[in-house]
Amino acid sequence: MIIDRAFALKIAFGVLLFACGAMLSAVLDNYYLQVGTTLAMLCSLCWAWNIVGGYMGYPALCMISFFGIGAYAGGIAQAAGVPETLAWFVAAGVGLLFALLLGVPLLRLKGHYFAVGTIASVEVLREVANNWDQLTGGAIGLNLPIHAGSPDEVGRYFYLAMLGLAFIAFLVTAIVDRTQFGFGLRCIRQNEQAASMVGINVFKYKVGAFVLTGVLGAATGAIYASMVAFIEPKDAFNIIMTIEIPVMVMLGGMGTIFGPLIGGVSYVILKEFVWAYFINWHSGLLGLIVVTVIYFLPVGVLGLTWRDIFRKFGASKSTRPVTSDIARSAS
Amino acid sequence: MISQYIVNGLLTGGLYACLAVGFSLVWGVLNVVNMLHGSMVVLGAYFCLYGVQQLGLPLYAVAPVACLILFVFGYAIQRGLLNRVITQPILITLTLTFGLDLIVNNLIIHVFSATPQSLVTNFGTVEFAGVRVPVVRVGGMLVAVILTLVLYWLLRHSKIGRAIIAVRMDRHAAALMGIRIPHIYALTFGIGAFMAGAAGCAMALIYPVTPMMSGVFLGKAFVICVLGGLGSVPGAIIGGLVLGVVEGLGTLTLGQQWATSVGFIMMMAVIVLFPTGIMGKKGYE
Amino acid sequence: MTKATTPVLELKSVSRLFEGIHAVDNVSLKLYAGEIVGLIGPNGAGKTTLVNLISGFLSVSSGDVIFDGESITRKKPHVIAQNGIARTFQIVQPFARMTVLENVMAGAIYAGHRGMVQARDKAIECLEFTKLAHLKDMPASELALANRKRLELAKSLAMNPRLLMLDEVNAGLNSSEIDEAIQMIRSIAATGITIVVIEHLMRVVTALAERTVVLHHGAVASEGPTEEVMRDPKVIEAYLGNKFAQRFAETSGVPVARPA
Hints:
Mean pLDDT of chain A: 85
CATH superfamily of the largest domain in chain C: P-loop containing nucleotide triphosphate hydrolases
Largest sheet of chain A: 2 strands, antiparallel
Number of domains of chain C: 2
Low-confidence stretches of chain A: 313-331
Strand order of the largest sheet of chain C: 6-7-8-3-9-10
Number of domains of chain A: 1
Shape of chain A: globular
Structural class of chain A: mainly alpha
Distance between the termini of chain C: 36 Å
Low-confidence stretches of chain C: 254-260
Structural class of chain C: alpha/beta
Number of helices of chain C: 11
Oligomer: heterotrimer
Largest sheet of chain C: 6 strands, mixed
Strand content of chain A: under 5%
Strand order of the largest sheet of chain A: 1-2
Number of strands of chain C: 10
Largest interface: A-B, 52 and 41 residues
Order of helices and strands of chain C: HEEEHEEHEHHHEHEHEEHHH
Helix content of chain C: 40-55%
Mean pLDDT of chain C: 83
CATH topology of the largest domain in chain C: Rossmann fold
């Protein structure tokens, strides 16, 4: 692990941010606690996706499969009487197994086939959740024991829980960023053949990354399920969210430590404060944001340099070739 | 009983073929997974509905116009938007078409409202292999299959068709042969949109259509395309028919609610077992 | 001397079929520690295929590859790399968006079995050896061809290999760059690393290799000290065809011209 000054500063900054976030829980009202919880949830999903999607460069569109599996695993465990916190760990364990189950066949594929296989997992899981009534409650949904306490206390509790998970996801990302595991993922992103030729166990690394993403995603889903105390298939396996997460990370910067945070924050700000006023144009505006991100911020906020910004508004309008290495692995 | 399901499956399968062939062509030639495809099908259906119900025009006049509008729409999208990011990683093109899908779908809801609509058609029924089926379904299926076959013939025998296939096989070599790649890309996408529109018109005759169905249509296109092989027109026909029958049999054995899942599970199995589709690379045209 | 007793790498009648055609046909070879062996042959003779077989990138159809007394025939490429076989690619394959230093570190970390910090030190050492140290923070994609080739070399060296296969490492370089590369390869061999030089340029082979193996149609056409191999009529035939070989044989004593 290489720890230089820039990295130490980044970590210190991140820890400081999370500490501030935790302390804010004492003063925020219920509405802002909810916004904060959503933010923390999206950020942990973004950090989780960033490992496979950003560092490793695989177009994984199954983030919500992990999330939903976690939500249902935690939910079913809780409904069966497992204590809440333990249920979260159970969900993380189920997420690990599911990531292995999905990853081992899918990670042999490249490009579109991988992307389509991962999307299909969302569809299949939603249908399974819809139809396996005895286990999941089917389309009607699954009720969980409600967390005891006043609304404020509960809100604060889940805010802190989600923040804690986001912090774990942040730390995992920081470690991945600086260890030989993450270094290997970056090699794989650029050229798998060359990566195996320098002695990287490409398949093991890919499965490892997928599992990390799966565990974090499932844990997030479980905390979410406990918080809302009710889950249904179309909510737990929401196809829009499975693409929203990558868009957020793209917005912030793929394969960076803070990209998911920046993406998540900008997204939540847009969502809460801009398009809350345009109920009927909700998905249209979301689409507009997606398109804008792709045309104007193809490398994310963190990938921009001042030169790029000037160039963007200057005479030259040519789109810059970026991340062509993923393109190569895709073809 | 079982023949009823198989005949129904084949009839639906013909529609599916038409639904998927454009998607498959775009994926195969442009290497773009067009998430907008489902909305284009819905758009075709709504144009058709609008022309027949609001303007009172005959169906045979409205449907071709609806398809042509979609062709222009598709050409413009590809030329104006997608061509600019076509060399980017697939995550980018896929997400971009997804964003466009959200916009288009939202616009459809806004303009045409979200309530299910369908054309009231009654052409009677016909006896077919011992099974009674509505004429409209047979007609819709036949039109869809004939269009798909025409597309196949055009790809093989027209100059532009050969150019599209050349680009599909080797973009760089095709460019060196003097083929205008951006134009061919846009044409291909336009043809994909045209076929989506045709599928939409046929759908509108048979099922009530809502904007929410775009996702379902897209899902079918995915499955068929993977079953039949990317960019392959005969593959799309076979994939469509197979999916139609499998869904019918799935409904028969497991119940209606599992029909869609059976298709998806079959697709995942094919992806994992035959990464180039069942037809493999041979189904080039 | 160990040289005569234990080979570093031994190929036992290795073959590889591509749809019924023998790309590599019953090749048996022994390579010894510290020697430089030339591997030559006309285009399509199976040189690169042979390298791919040894490095595990293609699977062997029949036969056995033994490295250091242990069979590596069925091993995965990364395991073979970790065991100490490094190769360069004919078409260089850097990690384009990483810096030069990071590229070389990649070699040092996984196959060289080093932690990140030691890997960086080793990488800098290798970059100094290949005279790339001044470019270490440049993205690999911005290097000129000659430097990319050197980067491949540095990356392979960082892997601590005992066998290094250089696939056309000099193709496309100018004369003075080739001279420098020859010097570099010689000093690598001096550290005890066995080197296989795959080349089209005969002057590189004659300058470097004591021993040369000629492949033709996937099979070994000739093998022996480089000087002798170069005069072997079978080699001339492989490169220039039957007619020319006869003419050369008639006017005997004429050394082979540079077929490249």
